């Protein structure tokens, strides 16, 4: 018997049945939200994900999918570390079930694996850099994309491709893919279109709100108008526990509460509306002349909006250790952390301008708001630290890097202008943040841009500490254009100087060698009780960097410590050894027609004093 080459609908209308990808509905049925049996015919013919292929090795560069067990493992990694944190596109139980049955369009699987392969510990990926593992899958996903397929699947694929683009630092491609997804959702009237069951209806709702949230930060990041207009008649997402226990087979028999306050995703939607207004205000204040009265009223109103959101949360959703443990036990710990990362980040964004104003001239109002900014930044750091301590709560998606960089600049403000006690705490946070950023950098290429942006901020502080925190157009770009490199604020950084190395004594008269790396951290000191501790830190940090200058400096420190040991008093000899190395660096810099300096992301030792002996 000859296999059917068209779905029943297209056969009846006697028209060509175009299918964009194996396992997906045809174009005609997708555009009209009809039940298409073409995808069933395609899948029954044979899925490209074999049920068993024990020896199959994942080769993304050849555009092959792994065997089914590994494929499911990678999809679950995506659901654990990306989905609901970056976007909400699927019903987890249904997605896993569809993959097991071979009913998931390949294009979706390629997009998912492009984001999740970096997290895998599978032996087939052992020889591939985590940041490179998804590129073959991403390329295949792009090749399979058919923009004539006006469907939910295409929306999901475009959101995946947008996420892939942004984690690679390609903001232009990101906004193009997201724009396509938004337009298709509007064409389909996604939240109101027919769905065969409650699960798929809720997926439509969650995808719609995902696009609304993405549109806020994506459009702002490329300075383009937003596409999605909020519609008050669309229900917010339902409670996650209810959603995840539902099945498609239940149809519409499941009763769902109209009160959506207990949904983490719904709370993200409400917060995102405040972010939209914060972004608009910061941009408007930096690009136009606003009266002080207008700025005062706007900040007060937005501050009250954030406070109201927090007060209206159910008690079980407050940011407490017990609530974090509770959500972790339900498999929702990472989503809980993500919600509060948003809240604390939006707060530091709103109050950031007052860091500069508080230093320039004290008033009770500016000081209060500056402290609010610092409080939000501290809480942001602390919830990330706690998330690493509670199983199932660690957040590893790329946007964590951006919000942590912003929070780190607030810690730098404390280093520069805080009292002794707060400086000690801020320095400790900077070191922890550096470790987290380094870990994220090993997963996401866009973290390179985050660190470059931190370097630009570092250079701005070096050029003029007095104006570094001023909320001007440059600072707004620094805060919101997270995927784009940013130019220097105050020109080129000054070159390395040999005068910044010498011998000093501490309060007890104990001599030690110091190396002052240029920048806002130069006035601070890291103390290491023994050279062995510093040697371990240098060795660990050095292996994560590629800067020629940094490598040379670390090598000189390492050689000095290994040569003279912890009991040595030959300070002058060590000093001359270090100076000789730095002279070589200066000579090499002259050959290259520019001075090279230590990477600004060397927060662990790039602000300190080198202590030798006791």
TrEMBL record:
Entries under InterPro entries matching the protein: TF_fung, XnlR_reg_dom, Zn2-C6_fun-type_DNA-bd_sf, Zn2Cys6_DnaBD
In its UniProt record, which GO terms are filed under biological process? DNA-templated transcription
Q: Which keywords fit this entry according to its UniProt record?
A: DNA-binding, Metal-binding, Nucleus, Transcription, Transcription regulation
Q: Name one GO molecular function term.
A: zinc ion binding
**One cellular component (GO) term of this entry:** nucleus
Compartments it resides in: Nucleus
Coarsely, its chief localization is nucleus
Task: State a single Pfam family of this protein.
Answer: Fungal_trans
Span of domain Zn(2)-C6 fungal-type: 6-38
**UniProt name for this protein:** Pc21g20390 protein
The record lists the organism as Penicillium rubens (strain ATCC 28089 / DSM 1075 / NRRL 1951 / Wisconsin 54-1255)
